[in-house]
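Lecture notes, unit on binding sites. The following record was shown on slide 14. It pairs a sequence with fe (ii) ion.
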Amino acid sequence: MTYKPERQVVLVVDDAPENIDVLAGILSSNYRVKVALNGKKALEIASSDDAPHIILLDIMMPGMDGIDVCKRLKENPDTKGIPVVFVTAKGEMSDETQGFAVGAVDYITKPVNPQLVSARVKTHLALYYQNKHLEEVVAARTSELNSAFNKLKAASIDTILRLSRAADYKDDDTGVHVIRMSNYAAAVATQLGHDKTFIENLLWAAPMHDIGKIGIPDRILLKPGKLDKEEWEFMQRHSEMGSNILMGSDSEIIQLAEVVALTHHEKWDGSGYPRGLKGEDIPISGRITAIADVFDALTTKRPYKEPFSIEKSFAIIKEGKGKHFDPNVVDAFFAAEENILKIKKRYQDGSIIPMSPLAPN
Ligand SMILES: [Fe+2]
């Protein structure tokens, strides 16, 4: 409802028709006047499609009195914003006090003074609807700001994904591995009951888990056969290289990505790398991305292997419960099996992945 200075609707509620006539006579030249002879009718009109912009409400009425009507108006989300002015017979001061307590904006005493009625109605309409207009302006500005913030966030996530894709480009030029793996990680985190912020941060942090591979020479990274001891030791350095690349950021996502890069090859039983962390010493983001990364590696083609079947891959994950993987994370992974398989289907190898986080899935 925007502010309109003319032809606003005033609802006059009074059980005495002569009082209504007086008020209608004062107001009808500037406003559309609706009338109600009792509280029930007043509530009906107030919540109708053609609701009044202000209500002049008698207090002493048979049946539902004005105080009760006002209370009910203020309890109903559809009508609580309509300003209510009590019109009371002189000497009902305690009623007036009670009237303010139930949410009226003003009161006028009977017999009414026409100029006063016109002035008060005009003032309250202007105040209320100008405030409302201001609220609308603020809401619109807030929404513009949110939208600008979301665009900025989307741009930064877009950069993250492209950077991750760059690191992975030599063995996966579609970027599909990082997208699939980070979606698996988010599905497991959701199953574990993590909050929305953590899940979203993990979704955007996980793609950077192997960013340190940028520092691994091609002869090792792309070697079709098994790596020798020295090559393997060098390969393992991608965890620390990744964490060094991401270190010291103010961004929560990059901070999480740093942890993920450093810890996604740690194993629950302490046999992982680079630090040989054990059990819950491994940050949960590392424990989750470990399973997501391994499952994706098992089910996809690599230079040194054909993809394993889902069944075989699931069996390997189960076998790793309590050894390679956190048992709770394994349970969450299988509890989220349906989602995991949906993600695998959606982001198949060779699919063109929309890089922008704003692109529809
Ligand atoms: Fe890795």
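Take-home: Residues 356-361 have pLDDT under 50 and may be disordered.
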